[in-house]
């Protein structure tokens, strides 16, 4: 479960997108729900305007038409004029038109009213035809029609009230639910934002403590921040940085105090890393010849200055090749190490020799430069002449499987260097198990 959580843990950007997506979803849902609800209310209002209000007017028109018909029948009974018969016919047409309008309302009392009105109309037309119709029959037919109109009016009124109540209820529910949806989106977003702020503040506090611990030299401190988002990646970068700082501190402690170049521990670590990665490289062992005699003759201060600048010249010569994966180290005294790609070994040796030979001359007096040597005493106490300082370089081409360890490489390079020192002046030799190059 924990592994699954790590796999699907969203980044900060994804978390923000999710929170905004939630509030947009809720707001859009609320908007759509509001539109749907208001559309339903609008349809109800339209139906009321197009059906129910005309139906209510039609009911009133039924009463008016029936009243006019009664007047026409009454007057016809007294005077028997044809104009009253025509008046009745026109009101009959009006009555039936009103019935057709009421059909849209779909009221249950309408068929009964239509049937009763047909009986009433038949009786009335018998009167206009001059037939004798009992008053009781006419009154009974009239009462049925009037009762039907009253029933129809009640149904229509109830129907209208029901629609208005349903519309009000729909409107209230729409507003309430829309507010709930919108408010829910805001609440969820606020909660997500609060969680993000809390998570970020905790992580930043941990990173701050980690920075303080690392600044105090505790390079092994782990801020314990979960991986998966940008803060977790930053924490991981912190660990990598701390590891690198620890390594750099070790290199700094191991570095030569004079040249500031990495020392023996760093040299061995770099060679071991090259061997572990199964990379081919050239390990160049550099030695300044006749340096001891120079130190005895000119003094340790002058010799230290020469050694410091020699380290700088070697460093600038190698880095000037423009290759990123190079290494320059100071074993101690007048011994240096340069590690480059195997194809750069020859070029590196040549530029180092040119740089050192140009440097050396300015550290001798004009008289010593002219004669090309200095007088001194060797390690056995014998007086002799020592040539000007030169440099000897033994370069070993190291391929995967050629050597068993960094110590084997160093030991072999030292032996080869001793062979190079036997030649006068600055020289180098490149030792390859496939071929050997000398210069």
Topology:
Layout: H1 2-8, H2 12-79, H3 82-103, H4 110-128, H5 135-215, H6 230-254, H7 264-276, E1 281-289, H8 291-298, H9 300-319, E2 327-332, E3 335-340, H10 345-361, H11 366-371, E4 373-377, E5 383-387, E6 390-398, H12 406-420, E7 427-431, E8 436-438
Parallel strand pairs: 6-7
Antiparallel strand pairs: 1-3, 1-6, 2-3, 4-5, 7-8
Helix pairs in contact: 2-3, 2-5, 3-4, 4-5, 5-6, 8-9, 9-10
Backbone CA Rg: 55 Å
Question: What's the SSE pattern?
Answer: HHHHHHHEHHEEHHEEEHEE
- How many angstroms does the end-to-end distance come to? 66 Å
Shape: rod-shaped
Strand-residue fraction?
A: 5-15%
Q: Quickly give the structural class.
A: alpha+beta
Which oligomeric state applies?
single chain
Counted up, domains total 2
Which CATH architecture of the largest domain?
2-Layer Sandwich
Number of helices: 12
Identify the strand order in the major beta sheet. 2-3-1-6-7-8
Weakly predicted, low-confidence segments? 1-6
Fraction of residues in H or I helices: 55-70%
**Biggest beta sheet attributes:** 6 strands, mixed
CATH class category label of the largest domain: Alpha Beta
């Amino acid at each position: 479960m924990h592994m699954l959580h790590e796999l699907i843990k969203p980044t900060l950007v994804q978390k923000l997108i999710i929170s905004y997506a939630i509030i947009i979803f809720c707001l859009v849902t609320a908007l759509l729900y509001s539109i749907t609800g208001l559309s339903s209310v609008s349809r109800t209002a339209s139906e009321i305007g197009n059906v129910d209000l005309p139906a209510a007017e039609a009911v009133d028109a039924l009463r008016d038409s029936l009243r006019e018909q009664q007047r026409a029948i009454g007057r016809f009974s007294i005077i028997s004029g044809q104009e009253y018969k025509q008046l009745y016919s026109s009101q009959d047409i009006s009555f039936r038109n009103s019935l057709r309008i009421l059909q849209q309302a779909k009221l249950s009392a309408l068929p009964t009213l239509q049937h009763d009105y047909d009986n009433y109309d038949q009786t009335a037309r018998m009167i206009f035809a001059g037939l004798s119709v009992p008053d009781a029959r006419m009154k009974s037919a009239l009462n049925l029609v009037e009762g039907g109109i009253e029933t129809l009016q009640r149904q229509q009124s109830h129907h209208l009230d029901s629609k208005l109540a349903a519309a009000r209820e729909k409107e209230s529910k729409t507003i309430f639910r829309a507010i709930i949806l919108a408010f829910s989106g805001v609440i969820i977003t606020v909660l997500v934002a609060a969680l993000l702020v809390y998570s970020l503040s905790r992580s930043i506090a941990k990173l701050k403590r980690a920075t303080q611990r690392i600044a105090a030299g505790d390079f092994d401190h782990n801020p314990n921040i979960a991986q998966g988002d940008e803060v977790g990646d930053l924490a991981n970068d912190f660990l990598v940085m701390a590891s690198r700082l620890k390594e750099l501190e070790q290199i700094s402690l191991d570095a030569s105090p004079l040249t500031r170049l990495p020392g023996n521990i760093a040299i061995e670590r770099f060679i071991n890393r090259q061997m572990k990665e199964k990379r081919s490289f050239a390990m160049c062992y550099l030695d300044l010849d006749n340096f001891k005699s120079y130190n005895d003759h000119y003094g340790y201060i002058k010799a230290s200055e020469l050694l410091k600048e020699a380290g700088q010249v070697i460093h600038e010569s190698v880095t000037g090749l423009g290759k990123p994966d190079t290494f320059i180290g100071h074993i101690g005294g007048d011994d240096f190490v340069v590690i480059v790609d195997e194809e750069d070994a020859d070029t590196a040796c040549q530029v180092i020799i040119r740089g050192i030979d140009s440097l050396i001359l300015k550290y001798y007096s004009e008289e010593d430069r002219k004669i090309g040597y200095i007088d001194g005493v060797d390690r056995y106490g014998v007086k002799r002449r020592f040539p000007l300082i030169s440099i000897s370089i033994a370069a070993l081409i190291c391929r995967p499987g050629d050597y068993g360890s960094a110590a084997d490489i160093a030991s072999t390079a030292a032996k080869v260097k001793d062979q190079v020192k036997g030649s006068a002046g600055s020289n180098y030799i490149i030792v390859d198990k496939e071929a050997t190059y000398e210069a």
